[in-house]
Amino acid sequence: MTALKLVAVDVEATSLNPRKAQIVSVALVPITDDLQIDYGRAIIIDVPVETSGESALIHGYTGVYKTEHIRVERLKLLFSLLEDKIMVTYTSYDACVLGEEARRIGVDIRLCYFDVLEMLLSTTWGKRFVMTHHKLTLEDAVKGLLRLEPVKRKFHDPLADAVYAALIYVHLVKAGIKPTKRCLRSRTNRFLNWLRSKLF
After folding, report:
1. Which CATH number goes with the domain that contains 184?
2. What is the model's pLDDT at position 57?
């Protein structure tokens, strides 16, 4: 994925609060410079985490993982794939969760993204939809804007959601909507990073 600049990202995590959320899985779907979705290079990274209760019901994962180093290695792999990329996310939530996870494991990374929901809300269609329905979910945009029927599923599916975000992004850009690039940097403590490097 090193040659590609844009990548649609969907994060599945254990909480809706980015500060508390732990990543369960992440899908990455590359988008080429000429706005083609590169389905053949899409990947999902599962990140071992203990899930139970509502989170297990939503994601379909259960279990306790006692190998924190595997979790950290998967997250480091994920961040290496996102280095120098601009993410396409349905909302800023995905970028915030990634930033918090990077901070926790001591990875200093600048995460830049285009917020698809923000783009939708700048359109007449998006404004009308929100005024009428008081919400605008990813599934609403897939049905209303793309005129596609979302896949029926029992559990959250990061790959499907990343593909949907990519499709909506491409549709909006081709319609002349200009995305605004947002960036955040994981806030890491240099002393803690040094300490981690000595301990692990």
Report:
1. 3.30.420.10
2. 46
